[in-house]
Structure formats: C-alpha cells, structure tokens
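SAMPLE LOG
Freezer: B-3
Tube label: C17
Construct: single chain, 230 aa
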Amino acid sequence: MTLEELKSGKMLLMDKPLNWTSFDVVNKIRYSILKKYNLKKFKVGHAGTLDPLATGLLIICLGKATKSIEEYQALEKEYTGIITLGATTPSYDLETEIDQNFPTNHVTEDLIYKTAQAFIGKSWQSPPIYSAIKKNGKKLYEHARKGEHVEIKKRPIEIFEFEIKQINLPKVSFRAKVSKGTYIRSLAYDFGKKLDSGGYLSELRRTKIGNFDVNNAIQIRDWLDEIEKY
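STRUCTURE (predicted):
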C-alpha cells in the first residue's frame, strides 16, 4: 500500500490482544506508518474502546477514514464473555480485587435464564466508576483511584439479545448484542445484583460491530508484517 492510499482513507479490522489498551493499538499502528514513510504525523483513530482485559474486534481508521469514526461508533456491538457470580469488584471486572463476597446456593439455572431475559430491551445503565468517562474535567477512573466519590449519571441503553451459553457455577458464559454506550461490565454487575449473588466480568471478547466480524480481523503482527512489505 502506498502512502497516498493510506492518506485517502483505510479502515482496518483488528483483533485487540489481551492487556493492550485500544490506544496501544492505535499508537502501534501510527508509529509503524510514521517510521515506514518518515513522517512526523499521521491520523489514526479507533471507533469504540475495548478495556485492556477484553479482546476482540477493534475498528481502526487511517487518514481520511477517521471522518467515519462516529458512524462506526453508532453501530450495534456483540460480545461473548463470562460473568463470575458470588462476588463483586469496584471495577466490575478483574482490574481490581474482590471487595465483597455473596452466597450463591440459591441461584438455579432457571433463575439465571429468567434473569437474563429481564435485561432485554431499553433501560438506563450506570457506567462503572472505573471508566474513561469524564467528570469535572477528569476521567472517572482517576477519581476512583484517588478514592473520590462522584455522582455518575445513568445512560439510556438497549440490550437486543442476552443469551446464556453455559452455566458452570460460579461462572456463567453469555453472548450479548447491545447498543452504543452499553458497558458489559455494568451488565455483569447488574446481573449479579438482580440475582442477589453479586457478579463481575471475568472474561470479555467483542465479536461483532455492526456487520463487521472479528473472524475477518487481523492481528497486530499481521499489520506490521504487511506494512514492511511496501
């Protein structure tokens, strides 16, 4: 691919690795382009953050394609993952340590399936305190790490599908199709709360964004190998 082709706009489907931030991926791709073509700047952006502990589909926009980022961000998203019942964490996932434990002996498979169905539809969701949403000029996770209490406004979301794939208590495997702005970590926390058992997200993979599928995505290594060919 030529520099002109990149500047004119290119969209990449990337499979984000575990423990990388979305910006790590953006920065790695940007650096590879700057180095390859001896540039000082080049536009690269992503269309929807994935947490470091999540893997899966990340849309990366290059050059003029960055103008389409908002369009991609508005698309529905699909995830697979695991909710671990019986405990909660402040971040609603494994980023922080367990802060409370709860009994799960009352949780039946039938209750799990019925509770999942109750989440389908439109609702209002509280984002996790450990998130990048800004409040008073600072990201929420910055407030959280300092122990500062801030009021978080609920957001309108829609859960189109919430399918329980496997139950092996305390772990519950699921697939969810959701609207823009839905936090799966919050879904895991709310799910555990509704079961009166507590819950946190212990595994997450984004499989689809709109009609784009992670099965068609490439690894970072693939991109680096490809750009070196030119």
